[in-house]
Design brief:
Rossmann fold; globular
């Protein structure tokens, strides 16, 4: 019986692509690098902020260690100064999550976004304690798809594998869920497509928040 839903953040519970693109392009422009189209950022994210910036510079074919350090610092400084800018909850998702909570579900967030930004944006848009456990990338900690952070979340919640569903929008998420031994749901309102999610381990695909609700309830 499902009692716990463990969610990715970017592209899953929050629409952050315009935020990431805004701060990413702002950091690039400070160093004379051409902006990247917003939609391209959907394919540059997923493995933490450092890898995002590396992918941005490789996309523009201008990577160097020195430039990376400068752009990465500028990106983090700007993002942390106003984490919620341009970020929204996907249409229809809050109503679905509220319904699941009313049916006894407990929620967690496990993200590769830096922990400070993860905590601030979740609390700002969903409210403090809406998610029972929230963690982002911390210095020295393994990134997803390493399942360590998922196991830590489960331990904090007192959750068994058979009680959990893992929900995300990228191949990194599907691999994370599978590495943790969990039933894994890919969502299509985020950053990647159905084929990628199915090829990397999605047990089910949710095209809409309403479909996500049905998938989770059907597990019971």
């Amino acid at each position: 019986m499902v009692k716990f839903c463990i969610f990715d953040l970017d592209g899953t519970v929050l629409d952050t692509v315009h935020t990431i693109a805004y701060y990413g392009n702002g950091a690039l422009s400070k160093h004379g690098v051409e902006a990247i189209p917003v939609q391209e950022y959907k394919y540059l994210v997923g493995k933490g902020a450092a890898n995002l910036v590396k992918n941005m510079l490789h996309f523009r074919q201008c990577y160097s260690d020195d430039l990376f350090e400068k752009v990465f610092a500028d990106y983090n400084t700007a993002y942390n100064a106003d984490v919620t800018y341009k970020t929204t909850i996907y249409d229809g998702l809050l109503e679905v999550l509220d319904s699941l909570k009313q049916q006894g579900m407990t929620f967690a967030i496990v993200s590769n976004k830096p922990d400070y930004a993860t905590q601030v944006v979740i609390n700002a848009l969903y409210g403090k304690d809406y998610f029972a456990y929230v963690t982002g990338q911390k210095p020295g900690a393994a990134l997803k798809p390493d399942p360590t952070v998922v196991f830590e979340a489960m331990a904090a919640l007192g959750a068994a594998k058979e009680e959990c569903v893992y929900i995300g929008d990228t191949s990194t998420d599907m691999k994370t869920g599978k590495n943790a031994g969990l039933y894994t749901v890919g969502v299509l309102w985020g950053f990647r497509g159905k084929e990628e999610l199915e090829q990397t381990g999605a047990d089910a695909i949710a095209e809409t928040p309403a479909r996500l609700h049905d998938i989770i309830i059907s597990r019971n």
